[in-house]
# Entry
Amino acid sequence: MVTVGVIGSTGYAGAELMRLLCRHPQVGNIYAASQSYVGESYASVYPNFHKVFDEPCQVSDMAILAKKCDILFLSLPHGISSQHVTEEIIQECVVIDLGADFRFSDPNVYETWYKTTHKNRSLITEAVYGLSELYRHEIQAARLVGNPGCYTTCSILTTYPLLAAGLIEADSLVIDAKSGVSGAGRGERLGSMFCESNESIKPYGVATHRHTPEIEEQLSLALSQGKETSGVIISFTPHLVPMNRGILSTVYAKLKTGVSQADIERAYATMYTNEQFIRLLPYNTFPETRWVKGSNFCDIGFTIDQRTQRIVACGALDNLVKGAAGQAVQNMNIVLGFEEQVGLDAIPGFPL
Amino acid sequence: MVTVGVIGSTGYAGAELMRLLCRHPQVGNIYAASQSYVGESYASVYPNFHKVFDEPCQVSDMAILAKKCDILFLSLPHGISSQHVTEEIIQECVVIDLGADFRFSDPNVYETWYKTTHKNRSLITEAVYGLSELYRHEIQAARLVGNPGCYTTCSILTTYPLLAAGLIEADSLVIDAKSGVSGAGRGERLGSMFCESNESIKPYGVATHRHTPEIEEQLSLALSQGKETSGVIISFTPHLVPMNRGILSTVYAKLKTGVSQADIERAYATMYTNEQFIRLLPYNTFPETRWVKGSNFCDIGFTIDQRTQRIVACGALDNLVKGAAGQAVQNMNIVLGFEEQVGLDAIPGFPL
Amino acid sequence: MVTVGVIGSTGYAGAELMRLLCRHPQVGNIYAASQSYVGESYASVYPNFHKVFDEPCQVSDMAILAKKCDILFLSLPHGISSQHVTEEIIQECVVIDLGADFRFSDPNVYETWYKTTHKNRSLITEAVYGLSELYRHEIQAARLVGNPGCYTTCSILTTYPLLAAGLIEADSLVIDAKSGVSGAGRGERLGSMFCESNESIKPYGVATHRHTPEIEEQLSLALSQGKETSGVIISFTPHLVPMNRGILSTVYAKLKTGVSQADIERAYATMYTNEQFIRLLPYNTFPETRWVKGSNFCDIGFTIDQRTQRIVACGALDNLVKGAAGQAVQNMNIVLGFEEQVGLDAIPGFPL
Amino acid sequence: MVTVGVIGSTGYAGAELMRLLCRHPQVGNIYAASQSYVGESYASVYPNFHKVFDEPCQVSDMAILAKKCDILFLSLPHGISSQHVTEEIIQECVVIDLGADFRFSDPNVYETWYKTTHKNRSLITEAVYGLSELYRHEIQAARLVGNPGCYTTCSILTTYPLLAAGLIEADSLVIDAKSGVSGAGRGERLGSMFCESNESIKPYGVATHRHTPEIEEQLSLALSQGKETSGVIISFTPHLVPMNRGILSTVYAKLKTGVSQADIERAYATMYTNEQFIRLLPYNTFPETRWVKGSNFCDIGFTIDQRTQRIVACGALDNLVKGAAGQAVQNMNIVLGFEEQVGLDAIPGFPL
# Structure
């Protein structure tokens, strides 16, 4: 049994982590740390935890928690974790950071898109990008994991095999993504209010969303067979959908000449046939976010549009599970040598 | 490991049963029987089950399944199960009927409210009412369990202790209940369509809803200390709320003279302190359906309105879990001598 | 053509007022005053007003606006309007206050429930309660109108005829009300966020909601034939429903002995047959908020529950129209001698 | 005052037509014809029409209604109107068909995509495509108007100026569209049920949706300056969003070399500056469906992604208004020589 800590446990991703960890058969002690609710019962902040986890919220002291924990999850706004994680801390325990600070190999890319200075360039080389299906081997030995973003996990998993197998024109890639409102977090912002997002859909962050460079780095690695972290440039447009959870990425790309349905199916199968959390749908069948809700699954489907010689591929996942907390636990399982699906076997609920 | 069957597995309650049973640590084989989808893969009907339960739907033959199963769940429209359950079947296996046919001790009450003839009066005396917290002892020995309705479970759990302890005027009881749309089932009816129920609230079945007599029978038993199945007559009004899941019952009753907050807290505590699935909220705190969603919990809170000398008590549960499939599994656990919470320890998800 | 001003025009009720006033055939100039957005284009705050009302928001100076306007609407948090309205202002123009400050005849009642001191007791006697159907005559001559609350309009319209005609036991009244989220206003509060209110229902303000005494004052007047402003005490419980708009009040009361369906129909007909905005539904037919959405209608239906000898009556309206801005415009029409339905003839939209 | 008829008045688009026509100042008599509800009061089918339009539904006899009406609106499933419209009928009255039968200049295109035989090829040459902003002049003289689809209106209005001005590479066009559920109509289908579409997003009709060729014909005409009805081939993917109303089209295209923001703004301004129902948003501002809900507006915004040299342009409209009934009334106004905005000046409601 291991001891874990969650810093930022009272945000939405943090609460989902708590939900998974409280039922993880290998997890013993859990420290739920918070900025705003120190000393208050966790169940008073999230009443769904009554009779489940009624302990008080802890002070968010990374150094102290690192000494007590085997794994420390950080679920904080970008720019915070890089200020506090140190070499000492990651010697004490493995840090899985759900924020953006340790997702990029090139701090300049981070600084350009996040419009801030990276506070901890020296640790970047220690960080492993936590897209479990791609970097399982590296994650096993990692002390610091940069857990991917929600849009990015969905978009990369859907697109990576196509580029890795050389089936599409990289410069034709358009990713039109849609997310539920929980992706915006629990902060009290006008745009996250019920009446402002209910019964409407809107694009946002057009051509500027911060998940863009994260997707591009991984897709560049796919295209270059791991040699280059840049090169692929995509159009990425997220949209806000009036639902609590779920992300759908609709990917458009020109097929290279002669590419067949079988080629594409082979590319996906090669990468994902043995993956427990990736579900490949039959040809011309498409994912819907309801079928993955509450689970760590990512569903992928595609069709070939003969008229335009484009592939249209879609991926769907639960932004708080495979897009955040679930993948973080998956990474914990990898780091600690557990079976990867331990504590993550929830079946998607429907209707939920 | 036990073998179970679900007849009516492709309705919403049936699918929720499947979800619980597929992850129940004591359940081995599962037969998913269906009327409309025999031979089709269960996961093609409910794609959330891909990689989880891809087996084909079975023929709904109760006699055959009874021979194969330890427990047979029936999730059928009222009037069907009573036609097919026989003495032989319940000798073969324990039947847990999620429909209404075996919930009433008096078939005349059933016939009056359901406007039909009861097809199997002889088995009524064998049936045990499956409100687990109230009839645990009887359920242990039952061969046939009439699993309660969703509104009824919520309304009875909230009101029973007040009557059993003699704290309220029975004839002043008003229960105003609200439910998500999944309670109406998967049938393609106009009123269940998105645009017809979204962004609106309505009452329905006013003064005629069939859960009324079921609540009244149990509350009569509460009032009479188990001696009478009639006597309590209530006003019960259900409302349709634009959400997938959840039931909230708001209960109003005149307090008997001199009844104090402490009396009420004692009445609830007496019945529920040791109950794992009942969560009593602090005084003047009220349940919300979001805090129980996806779980087998029923949350209860109340306040005393000194001005009107009424208690206002609220109960909330997930209509497909504690209000249907969860309670059915709870009853299975009781029948088979398992720990009652086995397979039912899901923490409510939020935001979900 | 008249000139009107709206102070608090950037709240939800204010914006709905703007929408109605911009299309009112007798309204010429409109001043949209705001606290937070002075100088900014109104359409930048509410982009639905592009090409409709692109003028800048005005300073919220009541004295200055009173000089320019025939009618001044106040849509402010309680306690503010009473600080600023003066005898001089209501000599300059008619003030229609959508807040609570001038709704009560007894300032002590206001102070008890609103837990504040009334800032302007002298003007209370000048104020007319703006429930148009009840006080049309008084409103015609009013200089200061206290526009009713949303729950109150719905609850009073549904219940008033029953008490006025002596058909029900006043002390048995229970009003269980449900509202969409726009009733909570545009303030950025946790409980109003999408993920916090979507897919859930909860009661709030149980036994303490401030619309209670407002309903009680009017129902007391109904019971006493206008002689008493107190006497009726009700149980009133509001609930938050995941939808933008709409209020439903479900009213329960014991019928006096011998009261028939015809008696009740007569009581409703007597008061409402000539009312353009009240729609009486056939016996045993119930309103749904979707059928009034976007309109100034209030729909009312009822049934008699012979078993309990209670009437169950329901009223439904759009909280931002008949429950706020629409009724305010209706009152303006009455004050200015226009036809009452001018500018208020929108047909409810469906599905909307 | 004119007399109008609506055949198919009890579908969602038909009901929205009724709502607009009942308040149109130049419309006198209205015949609401229906297939399923002949003889029943229209208000019993749509209770929002109580006290507004309580007349009975008429028999759907096109020939008879044509004699009585100045304008006949058809809101029927595809394939029906072409069976019944005749030369005689369109001599009697002007027919505005909201279905697909008369939208295409080439019946082969229709037959390929709709997988049916066109029943009335001879009338195709008489039909005018009813996208009001593009074909105002032709509509004035039309006897038969093929009113555009919802996705098509939104997508064409957003894209047309870019192609007409030669600013984008036509073969790079990707249109990712999102619609509320009312677009699927009032038929009782599983996919339109609340629990099946709520809290989820999905693509559908990928590479096969029937609005594709309609968009392509108009965009081909744009590209060829009116000379060719084919040539442009697009990727078009619709998605179902859990909301009642609204369509958003997100359009991606490669800019031709040297095209500037000013060029694009000029292209839009040239076509739309004098259009009352088109609202061009400031650069890098994007439409949201909530800001057009309930109105005949189409909002358009765009940005240039310098990294990819793509334009991302978005259009938003209310699928039942500008995408169906509103545009039909706009076309009626054009045909009859009324001011184009008569009866269509509703301000979008918010929050609605």
In short: Chain B touches chain C through 49 residues (CB under 8 Å).
